[in-house]
Design goal:
By secondary structure, the protein is of the alpha+beta class. The protein has helices at about 5-10, 60-75, 95-110, 160-170, 175-185, 195-200, 215-225, 240-245, 245-255, 270-280; strands spanning about 20, 30, 40-45, 80-90, 115-120, 125-135, 150-155, 205-210, 225-230, 265, 285-295, 295-300, 305-310, 315-320. It is built from ten helices and 14 strands. Bound molecules: adenosine-5'-diphosphate and magnesium ion.
């Protein structure tokens, strides 16, 4: 099977969409954004053995490659539309390709994204790069830099699950429902595209959690030029996480574990109840986990104690502050 046969068989689906003038098959795709809209571009590369275990199911690799990009698009408050795929394969295994494209299109179809081009190469290692383009009305994109003193900090879902799942996957631990639930969170991230679209006008700043809540929130606060406090007691932990891990380990996963692709965002207190209602309407868990203040830095608090968090774990300070 040569390169062109491979593209035809697994990736070239006829798309009859108003917003695609030319898709796969020419030197470039010609796309038609809604009149007056702005373009949001994101890209993410997944390297086998670095971003996912080498033996991860092909369908999960395809799904993840799209989902991680959708998560960036969500964090910008943008509507996803078109993607391109750069695929470096060690060999052209039909069974693998068929599963990979099935998983990839499953994620793409779910969010109305069309594959409009790509590049296929042979190399010594499996590398999957997806580039995704979304659109947004002028000035409506949510950025990392809009948080202000007095805003509240929110997070969707139950961060930490994916990192816990990856650890369980790597250690071939005993099968059980809780284990499978956590591993499922790693295999199939659930990008918060729909929710982000609904709350875009209420959020002052947003970031998606790919490297851990603590580090990513820190990035957003820094970009906004503000400080923040995280209440560890308010961190939403899944029942699966609580059943399988002690509280300290669970909080470590929630703060430092990557691969969640949940949304962390800020908003003024006046819109909190509207945000909560919106999340409830689509059955999404959303939690208030902290507050923005003036200054710089991110402090964790637990039961009135200030906690010094580092990526190798978190520990209690002796100092006690007012709760
Ligand atoms: P070129 O040589 O002009 O870069 P290619 O021969 O590499 O074009 O690709 C032919 C067509 O197939 C192009 O439209 C390209 O966008 C598309 N394509 C190549 N690889 C993929 C892929 N993995 N998925 C989707 N489309 C692809
Ligand atoms: Mg060309």
């Amino acid at each position: 099977m040569d390169e062109f046969e491979l593209i035809r068989r697994y990736f070239d689906r006829q798309q009859d969409s108003q917003d695609i003038r030319i898709g796969i098959g020419d030197d470039g795709a010609v796309l038609v954004p809604p009149v007056g809209s702005e373009i949001v571009n994101v890209i993410d590369t997944l390297v086998s053995g670095v971003h996912f275990p080498c033996d991860l199911d092909a369908a999960d690799i395809g799904y993840r490659a799209v989902a991680v990009n959708l998560s960036d698009i969500a964090a910008m408050g943008s509507r996803p539309r078109w993607m391109t795929l750069a695929l470096t394969l060690v060999d052209a295994d039909p069974a693998w390709l068929s599963e990979f494209s099935r998983g990839m299109f499953e994620a793409a179809d779910q969010f109305g994204v069309a594959l409009v081009g790509g590049d296929t190469t042979q190399g010594s290692q499996l590398v999957v790069t997806v580039q995704l383009t979304g659109t947004v009305m002028p000035g409506a994109a949510i950025t990392r830099s809009g948080a202000v003193d007095g805003d509240l900090i929110f997070v969707t879902g139950t961060p930490g699950d994916a990192a816990a799942g990856l650890q369980l996957l790597k250690h071939h631990s005993v099968q059980c429902d809780d284990r499978n639930a956590l591993i499922g969170r790693f295999r199939r991230p659930d990008p918060r595209v729909v929710f982000a679209g609904l709350i875009a006008s209420m959020a002052s700043a947003a970031i998606d959690i790919s490297d851990g809540l603590y580090g990513d929130l820190q990035k957003m606060l820094k970009a906004s030029g503000v400080a923040g406090t995280l209440e560890l007691a308010a961190l939403p932990l899944s029942s699966a996480m609580q059943n399988l891990f002690e509280r300290d380990a669970a909080i470590d996963f929630a703060l430092g574990g990557g691969d969640d692709y949940e949304l962390c965002f800020t908003a003024e207190p006046a819109v909190e109840s509207q945000l909560m209602e919106t999340a409830a309407t689509i059955g999404l868990r959303m939690s208030r986990v902290g507050q923005v203040s003036s200054g710089a830095g991110l402090v964790c608090r637990d039961g009135g104690h200030v906690i010094a968090y580092q990526h190798d774990g978190y520990r209690h300070f002796e100092e006690t502050v007012g709760a």
